[in-house]
Amino acid sequence: MKEKLQKIRENAIAQIREAKNLNTLNDARVAILGKKGELTSVLKSMKDVAPEDRPKVGQLVNETREEIEKVLEEAKAKMEAMVREEKLKAEVIDVTLPAKKNNVGHRHPNTIALEEVERIFIGMGYEVVEGPEIEYDLYNFEKLNIPEGHPAKDEQDTFYINKNIVLRTQTSPCQARVMEQGKLPIRMIAPGRVFRSDEVDATHSPSFHQIEGLVVDKNITFADLKGTLEEFAKELFGAETKTKFRPHHFPFTEPSAEVDVSCFKCGGKGCRFCKGSGWIEILGCGMVHPHVLEMCGIDPNEYTGFAFGVGLERIALLKYEIDDMRLLYENDIRFLKQF
């Protein structure tokens, strides 16, 4: 039995040393120490050994097992170290390489311009009001003194969902809704997306954004409107900015005006940016029409007000000297990363 165990030990050590990798090493372990292994077979044959010899034989078997297991563990540890070393060589990190740049997004030029306008008017005591983009014809047109048959209600200018519902063409419906609530006085701006049936080009889009303002109180005059817009222009374009009011017509205001600002590029001398005129048109405004006040439940004999509206994209185009409105919506990272 001793010679048999010695032979098993020698064969086992030889197999372990010949193993090329962890898989072949495991195969050797199973062949020797597994359920059907050589050493396990010796243990199963202990019943054939004389009772008085069993302790001695059992000791020899255990010593042989311990020796084989020791050699096996040493070989396994050596192979695992070699595998780890090869893996580290294959996955080596060059710390001299530049790190990957973490690109962080930022606000869109429209958002930057909107926040600037909101900051100016909130500083004057205005509140920001939002309303639905899908609006009733009643609020989008009728309550703003735009009756049936008016050119603005033509399907060539307005997107109709049905006879009574449209995609709003302006954010003025927000003003009508606030006036209907009867909580006076009112000082508000209404920014939001609007829709017109326009072809896409450098200055037009079927979807764009407007910011409209409204003030309703006792003894409001055109002088209040003029002073407000002058302060707005100076805050937005610079302290040296001048304003010019030109008579115009809007159905919901009377009197009405278009507002120009002195060119902030040339100081009013005339340049390519202002097309040589020294002035740039920025918005429309006027005193709220008495009929509009009446339709919204406000007594025009006691209250007056003014309203104005400016295109958000127009402010962004002017402020950042962008020539083509389409650049704001094409999501070209080369353009947007400039802001």
Describe the protein's topology:
Layout: H1 2-18, H2 22-33, H3 38-44, H4 54-90, H5 109-123, E1 127-128, E2 134-136, H6 137-140, E3 160-162, E4 165-167, H7 172-180, E5 186-195, E6 207-217, H8 222-237, E7 243-250, E8 253-262, E9 279-288, H9 290-295, E10 304-311, H10 312-319, H11 333-336
Parallel strand pairs: 1-5
Antiparallel strand pairs: 2-4, 3-4, 5-6, 6-10, 7-8, 8-9, 9-10
Helix pairs in contact: 1-2, 1-4, 2-4, 5-10
Largest sheet: 7 strands, mixed
Q: Into how many domains do the coordinates divide?
A: 2
CATH superfamily of the largest domain: Bira Bifunctional Protein, Domain 2
- What's the end-to-end separation, in Å? 88 Å
Average pLDDT number: 86
Number of strands: 10
* The CATH architecture of the largest domain: 2-Layer Sandwich
Segments where pLDDT lies below 50 for 5+ residues? Answer: none
> Order of strands across the widest beta sheet?
1-5-6-10-9-8-7
Q: What is the fold-level CATH name, i.e. the topology of the largest domain?
A: BirA Bifunctional Protein, domain 2
Order of helices and strands: HHHHHEEHEEHEEHEEEHEHH
Provide the gyration radius in Å.
43 Å
Descriptive report:
The chain has 339 residues and is an alpha+beta fold. The protein has 2 domains: 2-90; 109-336, Bira Bifunctional Protein, Domain 2 (BirA Bifunctional Protein, domain 2, 2-Layer Sandwich), CATH 3.30.930.10. The protein has helices spanning 2-18, 22-33, 38-44, 54-90, 109-123, 137-140, 172-180, 222-237, 290-295, 312-319, 333-336, and strands spanning 127-128, 134-136, 160-162, 165-167, 186-195, 207-217, 243-250, 253-262, 279-288, 304-311. The strands form 2 sheets. Strands 1-5-6-10-9-8-7 form a 7-stranded mixed β-sheet, sandwiched between helices. The longest helix is centred in the first third of the chain and has 37 residues, at 54-90. The chain is elongated.
